[in-house]
Request: fold
Amino acid sequence: MSTKTFAILTDIHSNISALEKGISIINEREGVDQLICLGDCFALGPAPKETLATLKSLENCVFIRGNHDRYLIEKLWEKEMPSLEGMDPYDPINKAIVANEEWTAEQLGKEGVDFALDMHVAHREVINSILIEFTHAWYQRDEEPPSMVEMKNWRSHVQNSHPEVEKFIFVHGHIHTPRFEEDENISIYCQGATGLPFDENPKGAVAFLTVGETVNWEVVRYDYDVEAMINLLEDRQPPFYSNLQNTVRYAAIKND
Reply:
């Protein structure tokens, strides 16, 4: 019977301090077979170039495209009324985040766009009788993960082409808060965020998923140099930086 262990990063958002510490934790873990990055790698944070260089240095990593990575490709800021995730185009917060997307693109240049273009929408593996699906949010959309009802409909569809599958595991990012939901033969996992958690716990997060005779989901929360991230935001002052300083400090959305 086969066994495989995945190490998972997600929602780094150019937090190079959290990323480097997360990678060091993964490197210390024995038996990791595959590294997965679930997207939203660059926008918002202060270190897109350093984040890109670090991610490109990783071996055996599958990169999944997040909505912020898609904005980089689409040049969101060039649209007539740019908006993201249903926000009012006239909302100052929306305008500041759009400006941050443009600043991030300027930092990354063509190299960053090419990296985002090479990302996958989803990654699927079948191990024994267990199917694992990795996405940023969902393969149908990248701005909202599926509900359990949607997952059950998806399972019925997938079983037509994979009748041998007895259990379905769905791993996503995007929401920046942990999720652990199980029903029947479906499990939905989210570790939170590597670089920008929203669960009022400022620690970074990496996850380990081992699939074999059994399934083991482990989330590792870790301390990193939060003040270095806050100081780098102050030093480089990308658009929206003061709000992001509070978000990093309190691990909650702070738009005041």
Remarks:
- The first strand starts at residue 4 and ends at 9.
- The chain is about 35% helix and 20% strand.
- The mean pLDDT is 96.
